[in-house]
Amino acid sequence: MSERRGRGRGPRENRNQGQDRRPRAPRVEISPARIAAYDVLRDVEDRDAYANLALPSRIREAKLDGRDAALATELASGTLRERGRYDRIIELAANRAVGDIDTRTLNVLRLGAHQLLSMRTAAHAAVNESVELQRRVANQSGAGFVNGVLRTIGRSTPVEWDAKIVETASSPDEALAARDSHPSWVVRALRDALRAEGREQELEDLLAANNEPPRVSLVVLPGWHSGDAEALADGDDLTANGPSPFGLELAGGDPARAIEALGFPEGVVRVQDQGSQLAALALTRLRPVKEGERWLDLCAGPGGKTAVLGAELSGYTVPVRANEVSEHRAELVRRSVAAVADSVDVVSFDGRESDAYGEADAQFDRILVDAPCSGLGALRRRPEARWRKQPSDLPELTALQGELLDAAVAHLAPGGALAYVTCSPHLAETRVTVDRLLKRHSGIRELDAKAVLQSVARGDLDLAGTSLSAQLWPHRNGTDAMFIALFERVS
Ligand SMILES: C[S@@+](CC[C@H](N)C(=O)[O-])C[C@H]1O[C@@H](n2cnc3c(N)ncnc32)[C@H](O)[C@@H]1O
């Protein structure tokens, strides 16, 4: 069944329409949730929209209630996340490269494939609604093609399709990339990072974890709650799962409602990945705070970690300077800390320039460089992100990371500590950047970030490899793949 054949039939059917007296099949209703999900796929493709912003806006526009909103979310996010796998299955079923399929039709097919392979949608409903969607958003002539491809997909089970993907792949990496829906270069980068820790065998678990939307993690800011946040868990919706002592995990439902129910002042409990919580705590807790210290958060926007730094300093007169190059994101930092930390001064400069530090010779006792990075550690959170990133993004990012670190080191006080954090496990952004930094600056030494993290974490943290830096992983630690390295100025 091919689109070309469908196209060939289309005009003839149209010409005959006036004379055809046979009763027409009743039009299939397309659920508003499916239309909203399709619109999100288009927003992401045509306008480079972020799915997490496009989704709520399309849901509002279509006035979807809770159940339909959840359906639209599952359809759009699941389809975007598994796009690579569905594209390969569509190619096998259509016997045609996806690049040769009209993009609107391709999105209709992707949505249909998701319903057939990953949701419990009845096959006839998935096929019929997809055919109708094709007529509505693309063209009548492709309806037969959509019908044929989706019927072919529905005739084999997901396991059988995965076996076909593997059989027809040109290499084991291509097979993994298509089956687990990641670009091949990302598969290679993740394998390299795991291999560096002696854990290459975890690759498939990692890819699978990247395809699971994470549970929502909350932080109860330190200073507002004594001891482990575990005491606040109800063991039901809210559990003390995860490695951060200030972290709680939400089983489901509306985070805003769960936050309100805890009854803290606004801003004290907020959504934050527990890897991010640990990264901030690694800097604040590597040694006791001394009055008179000065702290700097060099790349602070939107301010999640700044809030943890500020909250850790309640009761001290230690100022935190929070810098963020984008004025808009600096404003988000101001809002993030407004209610919870009065010691934070937010400024907006390029972290490579002396203005970011206040004065050319300003020195800080603790500096957080939570650097701009490829974000390959948060793929489970942003379903479309993996398809947007390119290996060619890396040289510019790694150069910027090195320059920000150089500037930060120049403002590190004697004995001062610096944390380098990325939400990426890519070696070019992690160990390679760290090793080059150490070569350029003989006056700093690397500290044992693994030991610091173990000392602050709730429970035992599984951290692998022999390096002093720590790499967290979604499949192993239940966090984003945050990388944390710690340094101290020795001369
Ligand atoms: C990974 S994010 C920081 C996340 C933040 N620490 C948090 O926990 O919410 C990196 C930030 O660095 C900012 N950035 C990029 N280039 C910068 C530069 N040259 N100087 C300072 N900040 C920069 C980006 O705008 C972005 O907000």
3D architecture notes:
The protein has 491 residues and is an alpha/beta fold. The protein has two domains: 32-168, NusB-like (N-utilizing Substance Protein B Homolog, Chain A, Orthogonal Bundle), CATH 1.10.940; 272-489, Vaccinia Virus protein VP39 (Rossmann fold). Helix content is 48%, strand content 11%. The chain is built from 21 helices and twelve strands. It has helices at residues 3-16, 32-47, 51-61, 66-81, 83-94, 103-118, 123-137, 143-154, 158-168, 172-179, 184-196, 203-210, 255-262, 274-284, 304-312, 327-338, 385-388, 394-410, 431-440, 449-456, 474-477; strands spanning 216-220, 238-239, 247-250, 269-271, 295-297, 320-323, 344-347, 364-370, 412-422, 444-447, 470-471, 483-489. The strands form two sheets. Strands 5, 6, 7, 8, 9, 10, 11 and 12 form an eight-stranded mixed β-sheet that branches. Strand 2 (238-239) and strand 3 form a beta hairpin. Helix 4 crosses helix 6 (103-118), helix 7 (123-137) packs antiparallel against helix 8 (143-154) and helix 14 (274-284) crosses helix 15 (304-312). The model is unreliable at 1-22 (pLDDT under 50). S-adenosylmethionine is lined by residues 276, 299-305, 323-326, 329, 350-352, 370, 372, 423.
